[in-house]
Amino acid sequence: MTGGTRNLSSERLGSGSFPRQVAAGGSPGALGSAAVLRRWGRAADGRQAGPPAGGQAAHDTDDPRRAELEAAAATVADWFHSLDLGHGVVTPGVKSAELLATELASLRLPDLRGRTVLDIGAWDGFYSFEAERRGAARVVALDHYAWSLDLAAVHGYNERCRAEGVPPAPWETVPDVWRPDALPGRRGFDLARAALGSAVEPVVADFMATDPADIGQFDVSLFLGVLYHLMDPFDALRRLRRVTREVAVIETAVLVLVGLADRPLWDFFPEDQLNGDPSNWWAPNVAGLVGACRAAGFSSVEVIAQPPDDLPPWQVFHGRAVVHAHC
Ligand SMILES: C[S@@+](CC[C@H](N)C(=O)[O-])C[C@H]1O[C@@H](n2cnc3c(N)ncnc32)[C@H](O)[C@@H]1O
I need a surface site. Which of 35, 72, 88, 314 has the fewest CB within 10 A? Predict the structure, then answer.
C-alpha cells in the first residue's frame, strides 16, 4: 500500500526503468527555459500558456511572511503550476492561474468531499491541492519524472547542446540532469505543500513500472495530461482501472478526424509530430479513447469535453478532451 508521509519525505514505489515515454529528449527548437517546460505542458500540446501569474495578486509589502514566501518560491528553478501560496504570492508557473482555472472548470470534477484521490503525474501539485481544498479525505500526489529532473541543469545542458549543434539526449540519461536520488524537481511541490499546510501525500513512483496493488485503490483518480506521454497507453488505462474505485478523470490530447468520428482510432507519433514534442506518442480520437477505457475495464465512459467537430472533413486536427471513466 502507499502511504506518503506528512513530513515531506516520500515513499518510493516501483523500480527501475525510466520510460522513454516521458523522456523529453529535446529538439534544438525546444531549448530555453520556458520552452523546455512547455514541452511538458499543455502549451507544448497546442494550448496557449498565459503569462506568469506571480505578482498579480494584491499584496501588502509590509507582510514579512510574503517576503519569506517570495524568497522561497524564487529558489525553485521552474514552476509548472501557478500556485497561490497566500499572502499575495502566486508562483510563476508555465501554466498561468487563468489557464489552470479554465482547465479545472473543463474537468467537471465530481464531488470530492470525503473521497480518496490519486493525482497521477501531479508535478507541482495544483490538482492535488485543489482536491484537498475541495474536501477530499486523502490525496496522494504521484510522480517521478518531473520530480527527478534538475531543471536548472536541464537548461544548462540544453544550452550546451545548442552551442555544440547536437540534439539533447533524453534527460534521464544525462547524469547531472537526472537526479532521482535528490528529486530536485519536487522542490516546488514540497514548498507549496509546506506553505499551504497541506496533508497531500507525495509518492515517488513510475506509474508504468509500479505494481498497482502497491499503489492501492482510490475513489477518484486524476490522469491529467499524462496519457499521451506514455508509450503503452492501453496498459496505462488498465493500470488506471486497477487503482480506481469509482471514477477516473482523464484529460488528454485527442485526434479529430471529421468523417471518421465513430471509428475508434489512435494517431501515433513516432517522432515529434505532435507539437514538435518527441515525448508525445499517441492521441486517440474520442471514440478511440472511450473504446480503450471500456476495453481496459471501465464500465461506462462519459465524455465531458471534446474539441469542436465543425472542421473540414478528412483533415487531421488535434485538440484536448476530458472523459470520466466510471468503474
Ligand atoms: C504534462 S505534465 C501534467 C502535470 C499535471 N497533471 C497537469 O495536468 O498540469 C505530465 C506529468 O506526468 C508525469 N509523468 C509522466 N510519466 C509518468 C509516469 N510514468 N509515472 C508518473 N508520472 C509520470 C510527469 O513527470 C509530469 O509531471
Answer: 314
Residue 152 Cα, ligand 1 centroid: separation in angstroms? Answer: 19
- List the pLDDT tens digit at each of the 327 positions of the chain: 233 222 222 334 432 222 222 222 222 122 122 333 333 333 333 333 333 334 444 556 688 999 999 999 999 989 999 999 999 999 999 999 999 999 999 999 999 999 999 999 999 999 999 999 999 999 999 999 999 999 889 889 888 988 998 877 778 889 889 999 999 999 999 999 999 999 999 999 999 999 999 999 999 999 999 999 999 999 999 999 999 999 999 999 999 998 889 999 999 998 778 877 777 899 999 999 999 999 999 999 999 999 988 888 888 999 999 999 999
Q: Name which residue sits closest to atom 26 of ligand 1, judged by CA.
A: 121
Ligand 1 neighbourhood includes 36 CB (under 6 angstroms): no
The DSSP H or E segment spanning 287 is: helix 286-295
Judged by phi (left if over 0) then psi (alpha if -120 to 50, else beta), residue 46 lies in left
* Parallel/antiparallel/unpaired status of strands 201-205 and 138-143: parallel
**Residue ranges of domains in the chain, CATH in brackets:** 19-326 (3.40.50.150)
Atom of ligand 1 nearest to the CA of 95: 9
